[in-house]
Every structure is written in C-alpha cells, then in structure tokens.
Amino acid sequence: MSLVISAVPSLALADAVPVQESGTQVQTQVLTPTAAAYPLTDSIQASIKSLSISKSAEGTRIGTVVRLHNNTTQMKRVPDYEIRVQASDGSEYKVTPSASNPKSMLAMENVELTGMVTVDRQDDITLTGMSFVEVDEYVYPKQETVRLSLPITSVWNAAKPDITDPAFIKAWGDTFMVPESPSPIKFTTTSLTEQTDEKGVHTQVVTLLAENPGTASETVSGFRLDGKAGDQIYAGKRADANPIVLAAGDRKYIQYLIPTDKGIKLQSLLMMTTETFAASTGTAGAGAVGGSAGTAAATPSSTPGFDVGRLKIEVAADAVALPNTLPAYAIGTPIAFDPLNRLLDSSTQVSLMELHMHENTGSGFKSVVAKFRLQNKSDQTVTLPAFQTELVGSDGSSYAGSRQTATAANLMPNLSYVVSYSFMVPASEKGEQLGIKLLDNLTSAPYSTTIAGFQTAVQIDDVDSSVMAFYPFNVTLNDWTMSAYTNAGLPVTYSYKMKMNLTVDRVEDVVVDDNFPKFTIELVDGLGRTLGSQSVPFTGTDMLISGEQTIQISNIKSEQQEYPLTIKLYETIETPNGVAKRLVKTLQQ
After folding, report:
1. What is the pLDDT of residues 27-54, one digit of tens each?
2. 3-state secondary structure of 24
C-alpha cells in the first residue's frame, strides 16, 4: 500500500443565518454545524455525512454516507475508490457501495455515496478513521493507494442512542436546521402535549414551527422525532406522511407523534434521519481488509437503510404548559389566537364571556361551564369555527371540554353567536387559577393543536342576588310563588306550578337559537331528592319572557305532596356527555 496522505479541511460549511447587531457588521449565527470538507481530487471535495453502528443477530452493521462536491463547471465522474473504515483495534473494513450510488456529478453538484458492511462480531467497535483507496487490480500484486484519509469524530451508535456533542444539543424553543441537509428550512419547538385516543393509546404530540426563509419552495426533510426517557427510546413519526412543501417565506406547524406508556415524562427528543441503501442481489457484505480481525457476513438484497441521530432537543419542564405559564386574561376581552392557525377566519373574534363552577352534590366532581362569544367582524358569511377546549387545573391536570351538542353552521356578517363548553373536574378543584386552551382538532385529526391559551379564574355566582346571568341575558327574579295541585285520575298524583315575575334583559345583540342553553327549574324535597324539573328556552315557543310567567312541573317522582320544597334554578346545556348544569340560584319555600 502506498503512503497514506492526510488531508487538511479546505472548507468548513455551516447552516447559518445572518444576525445584525446595532452598530456592528452582520455576524453569523450558526444553527447547526456541518462536517468539514476535504479535497479528494483537484476538483472534488469529500465530507462525512453519516456514520452508524448497530447490532443484530448477524453481527455488527456499519453504515456510511459520504458527500462529494464538484467544484468545477464541468460534469465529473465519481472516482471509483473503495471506501474503508478503520477501528481503534487496527481492524479495517471495506464498505459495500449502494447499487443506487451515482456514477457522475453535474457541474457544482453535491452527490451522496452510501455504503454498508455487516461484520461477524458482537464486541464494541470504535471507529477512528475513513479512507478513500484507489485499487489497481491490473498489476500483480495489486496496487493500493490511499487518496484521502479522514478523521472520524462522530458515530451514531444504535445500542447507545444519545448525543453528547454540545454543538448538536438544542434547548427547548431554540431554532435549528437539519444537520447535513441543504434545506434552508428552520424549525422551532413550540409545544409538547400528551393525548389519548378513543382506543386508549397514549401519544405525546410534539409541534414544530417550520419556516422557509429562502426564495424558492422547499420540501420539509423527512426526519422523525424519537422520545427519550432515561435509557428508554420511544420511536416517533411525523403525523402527516405526505410531502410537506413550504413556499418561500411560508411558515407552518408540523406535528410529530411519539407513542409512550401513560405517565412517561420525556427528557429529550432525538432527530432521526434514515439513510437508504440498495443492495445488489448476491453481493457480499465485505471482508476484513489485509487480514484484519473479523469476517464480514453477506449483505442480503433486502438490506434496509440505517438510522442516524442528528440532534438532541432537551425537553423543558414548561414544555407542557401549566396555568401559571399561560398569559393572564380578562373575561370579556378578545382572545389572542396563533396567527398561523388554520381553523379561525381572521375576521372572527372570540371572547370568553362567562366561566362558572358548580358542585354536583353526591357526584364527587364539579362542573365548570365556559361560554364563548364568536363574533364575525366582516361583511361576509364565515364558517362557525368548531374549536375544542381543554381546561388545565391548578395542579397541571388537563380536562377535555364538551361542546354543546348543536350549533349553527355559519356565522352571519357583523353578528355574534354564543357557544358553551362544560368540563368535569375533581371536587377538590378551587378554580382560583385555571388554564384554558383552545384547540384545533380538525386540521391534524385525530390529534389536536393548541391555537390559543390563557389563565383565568372562575367567576363567583352570587346566589343571593336577584339578578341571574345567562349571557347575553340578565334575568331578574322580582317575585315568585309555588303551589301544588292534584292530577285527575287514579292513583292520586301531584304536580306543581311556579309563578314568577321576571325581568329579562338582553345585554348584548347576540344571536340566540334553539341550541342556546335553557333556564331550568328543579324541585328538591327535604331529603335532598330531586322530584322533578322543567326547562324553559330563551327563544321560540314558550320562551322565558318579562312579566308574569307560570311554569308547570308535572313529571313528579312522588305520590304525595311535599312541603317545604327547595327550588334550584339552573342554566342547562346539552353536551355529548349529557346535560351540564350551572346552579344560578336556590329558593326555599
């Protein structure tokens, strides 16, 4: 073998963005470093893109990807050199080239050469170098000349999946690019949520903000994110398997799904890319070179590619937002939505108008009812946004909201509509510091994306006040009486009539239809048993009106007249989980 020629890197590239500091020249902020390039020939430079070691029943598999760059304005042939890797124990292995490797390079083009070898040994192998060897087999003995020798500084070890180089470790919220990728797309971690589907599968959903700062459309790299908790790795995938293309200047949220066991707290995320390898039928893996230790096993034609870890992203403690990390909110004011959300029209304004909590006696839980006003500020009809909601308790626990069963389909120009949601929370919840998230569960169904979030507290109902709030109505109870009467026929049964003198004021011009919550009267006997109830709508036939109104409660579950009665007045909402009730007033005979 000829003299080994060591090389000095002629070019060290980096993915970077310009940063302008006041009063200074433009500096460069490195987002993700890339490997140094070395001269392979007068016109071609070489760099190591990927190195991977993994173990299987067949032995230890070594995967390599080398990137070549043609510096000239002419097409060049890819040099027919063997690529070999050296280990710390002196072993050297020739990697088998992929059948799909290119044979030539266009002017100023980058190409990649993939190789793989499976070695019949199970001990740990430490790779230290890579060489490009020109072999002349037409002389005897054959002549081998090392054209380039490269140092190896980083190898992905599938048996010990971790990244320790600080240059490839990102904090939560940092902006990064895909290392060794020509794509200019930048990514930023924005949220991590834990979601469980209807089958009970627990999934951690990571949302990245992707931004294309370039001047042409770019396809998002097909990497995946794996989750790491201790020594356990949880394989992830991108939610949308279809190609994602970002136009110049475009930004978009991209979700990655990581199935885990319930209760797992991820400590970091690993960005993983897969290198493809096409084996030729009948091609041998490769033998040890020059009598070195180890014998290479055969490489089957079905050999898959290999994975390489590119970046590690530390998961911050506040990646899953607690109520105190959300912005404060004043009830009745417009909610700030993510401008990139795809659910709400830009002319639709949403405000939380009421947030009340009610204790369900004997049920072991409390009900929280949130009422949102949706206002169309444009002169065009828009679709009523079907956002979902999530309530975050003071301890960080999340509770899904139940939307009222029916709503209007569209929102008319310059009009407002009210939509109610209910939540079941533990009886221990005080409601003094709650987080509310508004979710888009349609764009990436069945997984959801947070499009707005804030912290607030429940409103305290004054059950002693004569005014009852049913936004957009205020109902004043001026006077009331309750009387019983005997129904005709046998056996003898009783019904009740409640006569009320009311003042019903509409405080805002908001559309109210048949889906609006109802005013409900509930009768309770001295033992706390519910005898019967009657609901009255705020619109349509027999609606609640100002003046005297008599409500008949005839579905009584008692064969005798009860006295005295407790009369509970509720706001009731039909939801997919049943009727949600909010106690607004209690009366006593």
Report:
1. 334 466 678 899 999 999 999 999 999 9
2. coil
